[in-house]
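Predict structure. Chain length: 302.
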Amino acid sequence: MFIFNPLFTIFVLLMGGYIAKLVGVLKQKQSRTLLDFAITFTIPCLIFDGIYHLNLDWTLTLLILTGLTCSLLGGFIAMVIGYFFRFSRATIISMFLLSSFGNTLFIGIPIVVGIYDTSFIGKVVFYDALATALPFSLLAPFILSLGGNQPISFLQNIKRILIFPPFIALTLGFLCKFVELPDFIFGPIRALGGATTAVALFAIGLGLGFGAIKSAYKSATIVILCKTLVTPLLFIGILKLLNVEFGPNSILAILESSMPTMALAGAMIIKAKLDSNLAVSSIAFGILFSFVSVPFLCYLLL
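Prediction complete.
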């Protein structure tokens, strides 16, 4: 029952956005506005608060880097399977990105907090920064350029990272750890940061669409299975080979590595005019499949 509460919360928030679109209260295009609000305001507040109060742990850092490695391996496996099925170049490149980067923040926070408590938010934020946000920001523009005729601009990519609000919040969070900030300033920061999950999940639900699955069910199935099951099972196998104890940090890292496809990855694939149907299908059905994969992993780990 402990995993039911966070999954129920995720489901209600997603369906709230989806129903709001169906009944015409909000339009699908407004999901972009809500996501922009989350990325520009609520996520930076959540990241700053989480990183500033996080006690850095080298063991956790190694676990996160292992999770990143397994995620990239999962993406590579999806890409190889796509090549075997003779999918187009655009689809194979899309499969790699969609299988390598998960929704470690929006979906990860309610699941981890539901299993443990709010003290783990900082660790989830750290995982997202090290295994999702930074590598995605560095790798995605180069990978996407392989699927089209877009030129690679290293300096432009660096500039985008440096002015990206979550990255600025991450940097400030680490820098401010060297000084003691008065607690009262975290009141509005926590108020905004606390809205992240609700706003982001509602926005994702508002943007959900299921019509694209008809033309992308094979590639979407491969992406979803590689992202939510193959990657965490690889992670579990590596930890067992190394005789690593399955404590709260390792369980957190494994669950984070199993999160469904990152919404931003799908948005960038659509913008780059690669496999848009695959991107939409992987996000929509990946979230739904996590209602099966997460309890399964919890059964194995807890």
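Summary: The first helix runs from residue 4 to 22.
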